Amino acid sequence: MEFRYIGKSGLRVSSICLGTMTFGSSTSKDEAFKILDKAYDRGINFFDTAELYPVTPKKDTIGNTELIVGEWLKTKPRDSVILATKIAGAASGWFVPPVRHGFTAIDSFHIKKAIEDSLKRLQTDYVDLYQMHWPDTIVPIEESLKAFDELVREGKVRYIGTSNDSAYGLTKANEVSKYKGLVRFESIQNNFSLLNPRFHDELANVCRRENISLLPYSPMAGGVLSGKYNSEFVSPDVRFSIYLKEKSKRVQAMANRFVNDKTLQATQKYLKLAKEYEVSPVTLAISYSKHFDFVASTIIGARKIEQLDDSLKAFDFNINDELLSKIEQIQKEILYPMG
Q1: 5, 40, 53, 179: which is the annotated catalytic residue?
Q2: How far is CA 122 from CA 101, 221, 244, 267, in A?
Q3: CA separation (Å) from 336 to 194, 204, 246, 256, 331?
Q4: 260 pLDDT band (50/70/90 cuts)?
Q5: Fewest CB within 10 A of the end CB: N or C in the chain?
Q6: C-beta of residue 126 within 8 angstroms of C-beta of residue 82
Q7: How far is it, in rounded angstroms, from Cα 244 to Cα 262?
Q8: 3-state secondary structure of 6
Q9: Average pLDDT over residues 6-30
Q10: Among 58, 73, 51, which Cα is nearest to 26's?
C-alpha cells in the first residue's frame, strides 16, 4: 500500500480515497457499509464526504451520507481513519445548495454552524480535513480563514482544504494565510481526469511550488470513461441521462460538458488503449489520475460493491512513460487540438 502526505500536513493517506456521494440515495445504507468495509480492508484509510451529500442534492436528503458514514465510523478505531468532509459554499454555477435554506456562505457563522452539524451526524468530535465545497466569491477569504483557524485551535478540525478553486483563489488564500498567521489550505479538491487534464496548467504549478496537494475527484469523468455512454443503448438511469432530463438549463449544460462529441471520441480511444494494456478502462483512468507528483489521493466512488474491484486494481497498475505519451497524444489531438 502506498501512502502520501497531504500538503505539509501530518495526514498520511492512501493514494486512493473513497468518496461517498451516492450513500443514502442510489446506494443503500447496507450496501454503503459493504463498500466502506471492503475499501477499509483493502487498505484505504481516507474517506471523503460532505454536508451536502448525497447527490443530486435535495432538501429532504442532505446530511444522509454523513449519517451513514458516522454510523460506520463507530465500527472502526477512530484514529485508523482519515475523515474529510466539506461545508457547502454559496450558490454555485449550476445550483443553489439546499443547506440552511439556501443562504449558506463561507463566513464565520455558517462555518461554525456547518461543522457542529457535521460532527453530530458523523458521531465524532473532530474531522481530519475540512474543506470548502467551492469558493465564496462575496465573503473575504480572510474572514473564512479566521473561522477555519478557530476550528483548528479548538481541535474540531485538524487541517483545512479548498475545492473547485482556481489558481488565483488558491494563491490568494495561501498568501493571506502566510501574512495573517492563519492555517492554510493543505489541499485542493478539483476535477481531474483523462478527459479533463486542465489542472496541469497553473494550478499544478501552484501546488508544486507551495506543496499543496490535489485530491482529484471524478477520475472517471462522471462515469463517461467507463465507456457506457459510447454504447448504442445508454441507460436512462445513469447520471447524465438523468441530468439531461432536469428542468434546469445549468444542470443540462453541466451534463453536456461531460458528454459531448469530443469526450466520447476521446473515450473510444482510451477504451482501445486500455484493451492494448490489458486493463479495465476504470483501472486506466484512476491510475492516470493518481500518477502525478502533485496528487496526494484520488477520490473514487461506487454505487455497488462490485464496482470497487477495477478501481482498487489501480493500486497495482502504473502509468509508464510510453503509456503516458499515448495518453497525451489523445488529449492533444481531440480534447485540446490548439494546445
Answers
A1: 53
A2: 21, 28, 33, 37
A3: 12, 18, 29, 17, 6
A4: confident
A5: C
A6: no
A7: 18
A8: coil
A9: 97
A10: 58
Between CA 112 and CA 109 the distance in angstroms is: 5
Reduced to 3 states (helix: H, G, I; strand: E, B; else coil), residue 4 is: strand
Neighbours of 15 (CB within 10 A): 22
Give the residue carrying C-alpha cell 468532509: 85
Measured CA to CA, the distance from residue 335 to residue 339 in angstroms comes to: 9
Residue 338: pLDDT band (50, 70, 90) is very low
Question: At 95, is the secondary structure helix, strand, or coil?
Answer: coil
The C-alpha cell 469526450 sits at 263
Q: Among 81-90, 166-175, 244-253, 291-300, which stretch is predicted with the lowest mean pLDDT?
A: 244-253
pLDDT in tens, 213-224: 999 999 999 899
**C-alpha cell of 324?**
503516458
CB 160, CB 148: distance < 8 Å: yes
Confidence of residue 232 (pLDDT cuts 50, 70, 90): low
Check residues 311 and 246 and name the one with the higher pLDDT.
311
Mean pLDDT of 170-198: 97
Residues in the chain: 339
Strands 3-5 and 12-14, bridge-based pairing: antiparallel
Beta bridge mates, 159: 129
Residue 197 confidence (pLDDT) above 60: yes
**Per residue in 29-80, pLDDT tens?**
999 999 999 999 999 999 999 999 999 889 999 999 999 999 999 999 999 9
Bridge partners of 16?
298
Q: Which cell numbers in the block locate residue 177?
A: 494565510
Query: Quick check: is 53 catalytic?
Result: yes
Which grid coordinates are listed for 167? Answer: 489558481
Burial zone of 242 (CB within 10 Å; 0-12 exposed, 13-18 middle, 19+ buried): middle
Nearest to 282 by CA among 325, 234, 315: 315
Burial of 22 (0-12, 13-18, 19+ CB in 10 A): buried
178 neighbors 141 (Cβ within 8 angstroms): no
